[in-house]
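Supplementary Text 2. Reproducibility record for the structural model of the 398-residue chain.

All settings were left at their defaults, and a single model was retained for analysis rather than an ensemble. We include the record here because the model underlies the residue-level annotations in Supplementary Table 4.
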Amino acid sequence: MATAYCSPVLGPVLKKVSSSIWRHQNKIRCNPLVVVSSSDRFSKTALYFGRACTEKVNVKRMHKCSLSASYETLDEQPDSVHEEDEDYISRYTLIWRAVKLPIYSVALIPLSVGSAVAYFQTGVFAARRYFLLLAGSILIITWLNLSNDVYDFDTGADKNKKESVVNIIGSGSRTGTLIAAFMLLALGFGGLVWASIDASNIRALLLLASAVICGCIYQCPPFRLNYRALGEPLCFAAFGPFATTAFYLMQSHTRMELPITGTILAASILVGFTTTLILFCSHFHQVEGDRAVGKMSPLVIIGRRRGSVVVKVAIITLYTLLFVLGLSRALPFTCTLLCGLTMPIGNLVVNYVGKYHEDKAKIFMAKYYCVRLHSAFGVALVVGLLVSRMMINKPIIF
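Retained model, structure tokens:
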């Protein structure tokens, strides 16, 4: 009932009733001969509830005013509120970022492209060896991620990196994480050696060993060449000419050793190019932290704005190179056509980096757009090679 009294519609009526009751009560107080009847008692009760309800309305009005003032204060200080929201990242999101699942495309794409080139040239595909190499590659990429987190934790580069494995688990996990990383490296490289012995190809093993050495000198002390702006050339060599070519050679067998052809060199260059773009764009959101610890990444040297121009030039170079290799017939026409269809993704990378290169929160996603380009471009290469071979002859799978 009190709620009904407090409604906006009954407010004026309530006010009039309260005024008349108040006047009637004053008459009673002034005339002692007037006997208080039961109706008067009811009037007093009604007056009590009326006053209570009026006070309640006033309290609500005061509360609304205070809320409005609070909202105005928040509107005047949006930056602090947004910063607070940006600082908060759920543990689930941190774990997802630490796992870096999309980054494992850098294990899948070189292997798939190298195997597809071998299949294109010979019509032969060693499925069992492919999956053995895939397992070994995934373990080695995991070693790269874990050990990189440990070494960046040691130098302080990951001090504010919430998704670092060491920061998530705790600083006491540093040694355990490093031991686990090198155990994974031993298992992964063991798988590569096994596949090399199965393929009877020492050249492939030497190339894969060179790729792993690139990973070591990229991040491991005392080298740490990624602190001297040499991470990108090492990344290009490791995942492009070394790994992709090695996986191509792994598809050979004792009766047939594959030659190094223009097709595998062209494909490995393109794979190395898109992989290196992922690494380059991963520096955008870490410029301040890298500079503070003396890590001279390319973006620390040239800055974010020029870095966005480098990304644009890199994408243009990638597709120019694709069409040149297609015209020179180093790549089949189907590869050129299908890879050309990924240009909208390349354009997305350019526009995103160009728009948000100064926004530390949003530019974090740039590397994932590059992963999308890397994956789509690699799949297009694989499908183009497979279609070209199927147009020639029937495949052999063992």
